[in-house]
Design goal:
about 240 residues, 9 strands, six-stranded parallel sheet, Rossmann fold, three-stranded antiparallel sheet, alpha/beta
């Protein structure tokens, strides 16, 4: 299977990568759905509830406590997957990285064309005046981050109940539609509308790399079970 993937990659100059949380787990960033016993001792609500727009509006203090503890990993570094994708882009083989992650590790690895479907922890804006704030400024303050104007600072991440950026969505769809090879990795393909983008791929080199089964396994032209970094480092 690795040999087949290697052949497709070697022959293509129009690869598009679509990734989820599994791409960053090898960098030490856990999938927040993988909750353990300690999680339920610390939080009274499931992560999907806390990361909803309604919860953010009604319980901002608890939202930011969870956000700082579970979504921000400032010491995380790009892993073999991030580095390989950046290398392919420099070689002119990879056209775009479409990611559901908000950690910015693809850019840290050197990738330029990164479409962040769910936003980024590295961008934060005052809801009142629009002033920009860096991640470090969110980390350095306690409780609800507040702008110098008195407004609340919101991370530029897409919460449940919020819509995706239409421009990012349109560009992602366009890349997928025209891709020669589409590599989908580290995602359960359970979160919509992001997962729905795959239906626009019309090529015959759909590669799925994941540790567990996904709803799209039967549609894959090549299915590889394993860690994305370990798989791509073999190419």
């Amino acid at each position: 299977m690795i040999d087949q993937l290697k052949q497709w990659v070697q022959q293509s100059d129009n690869i598009v990568f679509f990734g989820g949380a599994g791409v960053s787990t090898e960098s030490g960033i856990p999938d927040f759905r993988s909750t353990d016993g300690l999680y339920y001792q610390e939080y009274q609500y499931p992560p999907e509830t806390i990361l909803s727009h309604t919860f953010y509006e009604e319980n901002p203090l608890e939202f930011f406590r969870f956000y700082r503890n579970k979504l921000i990993y400032p010491d995380a570094k790009p892993n073999a997957a991030h580095n390989k994708l950046s290398e392919w882009e420099k070689q002119g083989k990879l056209k775009a990285v479409i990611t559901q992650n908000i950690d910015g590790l693809h850019q840290m690895a050197g990738s330029k064309e990164v479409l962040e479907l769910h936003g980024s922890i590295h961008r934060n804006y005052c809801e009142s005046c629009g002033k920009f704030y860096r991640l470090q400024e969110i980390m350095d303050c306690d409780g609800i981050p507040t702008c110098s104007c008195g407004g609340r600072i919101k991370p530029d991440v897409v919460l449940y109940e919020e819509g995706l950026d239409s421009n990012i969505l349109s560009r992602s769809l366009n890349y997928i539609r025209h891709a020669d090879v589409l590599i989908v990795a580290g995602t359960s393909l359970a979160v919509y509308p992001a997962a729905g983008l795959l239906q626009y791929y019309t090529g015959n080199h759909l590669v799925l790399i994941n540790k567990t089964p996904t709803p799209y396994d039967a549609n894959a032209d090549l299915l590889i079970q394993g860690k994305i970094g370990e798989v791509l480092s073999q190419l």
